[in-house]
Design a protein that fits this description.
Helices cover 73% and strands 5% of the residues. It is mainly α and 219 residues long. The chain has a 3-stranded antiparallel sheet with strand order 1-3-2. A hairpin with a 3-residue loop joins strand 2 and strand 3. It comes from Pseudomonas eucalypticola. This is GntR family transcriptional regulator. Pfam families: FCD, GntR. GO terms for molecular function: DNA binding; DNA-binding transcription factor activity.
Length: 219
């Protein structure tokens, strides 16, 4: 596998491993061995070690003394805790857009992503759908202008992607529910309806949490 700029080599390795974890190719509890990753990707062990630290910061693996790196387990408590925190951060981001957009052009990125989400829904393309769900979030960063919030959300995003993917893989029909909630959110942002934004995003994360818990129970 060949890695290229602009991301550092360690970040690219981390993204590669993160995708495998998010999509379930690396199972909870599975060990990630530095030597095997080094040989498979033809990279240095130092770069792999840095990549594993990135994944630990993103809550996708745990690195334990004398046991090495293992994919983190998904438990009901972890899922509920993550959803509760992400709900409040989503509300902060959504509120920032509603309060600060000035011209229709400011909303153009969200409309483009809405079109891509609709296309992914029609194709039942889970990977693209999950990626664009978080591209919505990234489009809000310039409005919030809060580097601490952005860093926190980015570090938690892979863990949240993992839970979404798990839920949608088992029930592709629920992509339509997410799409309906996003459309409602966009309407509320355009109307600058802050209570509605909180309600929609609360419903969104609650629905997500319920689907993930149901998927965990089904395993």
């Amino acid at each position: 596998m060949t890695f290229k700029a602009p991301d550092s080599l360690s970040e690219q390795i981390a993204d590669y491993l993160a995708e495998r974890i998010i999509q379930g190719e690396l199972a909870p509890g599975e060990r990630i061995q530095e030597q095997k990753v080094t040989a498979a990707l033809n990279v240095s062990r130092g770069s792999v070690r840095e990549a594993l630290l990135i994944l630990e910061r993103r809550h996708l693996i745990a690195i334990l003394p004398r046991r090495g790196a293992h994919v983190t387990e998904l438990s009901a408590h972890k899922v509920q805790s993550l959803c509760a925190l992400m709900s409040e951060m989503y509300i902060l981001l959504g509120t920032a857009v509603a309060e600060r957009w000035k011209a229709q052009a400011d909303l153009a990125p969200f409309l483009v992503i809405q079109q891509r989400l609709t296309a992914s829904l029609e194709r039942k393309d889970i990977k693209a759908f999950v990626e664009d769900s978080f591209n919505v979030m990234r489009a809000t960063y310039p409005f919030a202008d809060n580097p601490y919030l952005q860093e926190t959300v980015e570090n938690l995003q892979p863990a949240m992607s993992r839970t979404y993917y798990l839920a949608l893989e088992q029930r592709k029909a629920t992509m339509g529910d997410y799409m309906h909630l996003f459309n409602s959110l966009l309407e509320a942002v355009v109307a600058r309806d802050l209570p509605r934004i909180r309600q929609v995003l609360g419903d969104y994360t609650q629905r997500s949490c319920q689907l993930v818990l149901a998927a965990l129970a089904a395993d």
